[in-house]
Each structure stands twice: as structure tokens, then as C-alpha cells.
């Protein structure tokens, strides 16, 4: 009888020890993966109504592009990105650099982590988590915008991003449109997002074929995994930048055209067939050939032309 009790007690200790170890592993897992840490709203930058001129070194227009996942790296050259020669945004930034003198349009590609680790990979895949990458990319983009505005109060901006970069640019545009961003809304000429994971189907202007779904972060709103936080829709959309914001999303792209409310069991029957669409049609990697109008214009060609027109029509601030 005594031995039986001792065995039971020993088993309890082993089970409790295993549970404690599991709890420690889970806590470390979440801590190492990182929680989502994004820059908060900032005071509205002071107006520039009384500013008559700016330094001659300032560009008339600052173009800021943010690449997608695995298309950038910390320390990459923002004026000659080489981290991924196949980066989609190069199909926009390079043509703009070829067309415009840097004094007219400075084209800056934000270098950042640009990774998305698999939270259940065993062994770990060595990638930074989506939360860490997105947070770092947002901070880097906010910083370059704030620095440029502090130095060049009359410079105007064109913002664009793809995939994870579209989420980052869209979030910053939302803050700017609400009066809480790093530059005043009246300095932003336009925003173009390709495959935005927070696309709500109502904010901004859609270019291309009609898309019934929403961004993956809306579809999976509330999902919390180590290093992956789905944040749902942007409160207030793009605010005062709504009419200057472009959304391009190809049908069946699971990043921006996911089933609404995927966690709702009543939607499972209609959502399930879409999984096959995503597997059989990897359109997310094909925006350089995805046609958005009757003239055969691809997504990247359209954005390049759109940005070109904005730059050509932008004012020429007086120089000091």
C-alpha cells in the first residue's frame, strides 16, 4: 500500500514537472518569437503654410517603397537594393530612378528584416517572426519619413509597398490620414498597395479585377500564434488619404483575397473550396505579369505610370 502511494506520488511529480517544463517552453517560445510592437501615433507634424523654402539638397518628391517578405534585408542599400534581385518593388523603383533626377524624385527602398518564420518549425527555421519583422519595418519606414520631413518641410511623398510591405505602408498611411503620422497628410501625393494583408475591400480605390475577399489579417482576425498577430481591419481606414490610396489585389491571392471571417463555422463550407484556389494559383508571386486593365498593363507598370504622373505634376518647392 505504501509503495503504491509512493508510485502515485512519483508519477504526480513527473507529470507536474513535465507540465512545468512545457509551460516554460511555451513562454520562452512566445517571448523569443516576439509580440507585435508597432510605433504608436505621433503628434501631428507642424504645418508648413508659413515655410517659403527648403534646403537645395531636398528632393521635390520623396518616393518610399517597402518590399515584401524575403525581398529585403537589414543593411541593404536603399538606393540600389541587392538583397533579392527578384524583388517585386524593383520593377517600380528602378524605372522611376531611370526617369527622374534624384533632385526631382528621391527613390528610397526601405531596408528591413522582411521575414516570416514558421512558428511550428522543428528545428526552428532561423527566420525572424512576422511580428518582429513587421514592427522593425514599420519603425524603419516611419523613421525615414520623419527625418525627411524634419529636413525638408516642403517635400511631397509617394508611398508604395508589396505584401508585408503593403501592410507596413498601409498602416503608416492610416496614421497619416488620421493626423497621427510622421508627415502631414497634405504632403502625401499618393499611396499604392499591392497585396495588402489588411485590405478591407472598402478603403481606398481598387485597381484591377473585382475581388470579393479581404486581407488575411481580417480573415484571421484574432489569431494569436508565437510571433504572428493578426490585427484585423485598420480603424478609420486611410482617413483623409482614402481618395489618394490605391489597392491592387489579384483574385485568389490568399494574402489580400481571403474568405471573410474564416473562424466562423458558418463560413467554412464556402471558405474550404478556396484553399484549392490558393494552392493551384500562386498569383501572389506574379504581380509583375498580373494585368490590371484592358490595355494589358501589369500591376507594376500601372503603379510606375501612376507614380510618374504624380511626380511630374508635383510642385517645385523654392530652395534656400
UniProtKB/TrEMBL annotation:
Gene Ontology molecular function, alphabetical: carboxylic ester hydrolase activity
Transmembrane domains' residue ranges: none
Domain of life of the source: Bacteria
Keyword Hydrolase: yes
UniProt KW keywords: Disulfide bond, Hydrolase, Serine esterase
Protein's UniProt keywords contain Hydrolase: yes
Family indicated by similarity: Belongs to the cutinase family.
Protein name: Cutinase
Amino acid at each position: 500500500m505504501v509503495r503504491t502511494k509512493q508510485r502515485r506520488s512519483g508519477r504526480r511529480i513527473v507529470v507536474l514537472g513535465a507540465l512545468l517544463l512545457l509551460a516554460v517552453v511555451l513562454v520562452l517560445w512566445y517571448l523569443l518569437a516576439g509580440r507585435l510592437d508597432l510605433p504608436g501615433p505621433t503628434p501631428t507634424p507642424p504645418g508648413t503654410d508659413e515655410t517659403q523654402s527648403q534646403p537645395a539638397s531636398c528632393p521635390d518628391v520623396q518616393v518610399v517603397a517597402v518590399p515584401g517578405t524575403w525581398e529585403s534585408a537589414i543593411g541593404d542599400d536603399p538606393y540600389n537594393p541587392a538583397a533579392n534581385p527578384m524583388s517585386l518593388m524593383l520593377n517600380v523603383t528602378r524605372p522611376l530612378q531611370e526617369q527622374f533626377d534624384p533632385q526631382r524624385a528621391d527613390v528610397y527602398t526601405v531596408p528591413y528584416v522582411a521575414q516570416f518564420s514558421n512558428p511550428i518549425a522543428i528545428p526552428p527555421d532561423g527566420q525572424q517572426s512576422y511580428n518582429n519583422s513587421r514592427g522593425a519595418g514599420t519603425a524603419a519606414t516611419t523613421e525615414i519619413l520623419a527625418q525627411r520631413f524634419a529636413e525638408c518641410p516642403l517635400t511631397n511623398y509617394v508611398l508604395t509597398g508589396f505584401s508585408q510591405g503593403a501592410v507596413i505602408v498601409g498602416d503608416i498611411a492610416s496614421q497619416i490620414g488620421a493626423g497621427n503620422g510622421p508627415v502631414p497628410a497634405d504632403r502625401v501625393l499618393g499611396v499604392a498597395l499591392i497585396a495588402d494583408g489588411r485590405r478591407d475591400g472598402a478603403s481606398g480605390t481598387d485597381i484591377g479585377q473585382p475581388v470579393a475577399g479581404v486581407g488575411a489579417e481580417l480573415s484571421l482576425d484574432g489569431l494569436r500564434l508565437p510571433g504572428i498577430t493578426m490585427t484585423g481591419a485598420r480603424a478609420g481606414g486611410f482617413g483623409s488619404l482614402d481618395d489618394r490610396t490605391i489597392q491592387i489585389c489579384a483574385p485568389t491571392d490568399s494574402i489580400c483575397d481571403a474568405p471573410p471571417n474564416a473562424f466562423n463555422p458558418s463560413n467554412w463550407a464556402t471558405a474550404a473550396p478556396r484553399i484549392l484556389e490558393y494552392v493551384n494559383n500562386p498569383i501572389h508571386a506574379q504581380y509583375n505579369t498580373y494585368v490590371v486593365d484592358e490595355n494589358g498593363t501589369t500591376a507594376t507598370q500601372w503603379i510606375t505610370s501612376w507614380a510618374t504622373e504624380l511626380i511630374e505634376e508635383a510642385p517645385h518647392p523654392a530652395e534656400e
